[in-house]
Design goal:
Helix content is about 75%, strand content about 0%. By secondary structure, it is mainly α. It has a domain at about 25-55. It starts with a helix and ends with a helix.
Length: about 55
């Protein structure tokens, strides 16, 4: 199957020449990240405590 070079360039150009998204994650994203981090730490230490309690 022969692909026309014009169409190949049309489909490959956005891969190499894309504009940045300029996404802004407000304070809600930071608060969510802190809540997730605290939950992971609590689950980790609770798992260690629970493992020592059973042994």
């Amino acid at each position: 199957m022969k692909i026309n070079k014009k169409y190949l360039l049309l489909f490959l150009a956005p891969i190499f020449f894309h504009a940045p998204a300029y996404a802004y994650a407000g304070p809600g994203a930071a608060i969510g990240a802190i809540i997730v981090a605290v939950t992971v730490f609590l689950a980790f230490f609770a798992s260690i405590f629970w493992g020592l309690l059973i042994l």
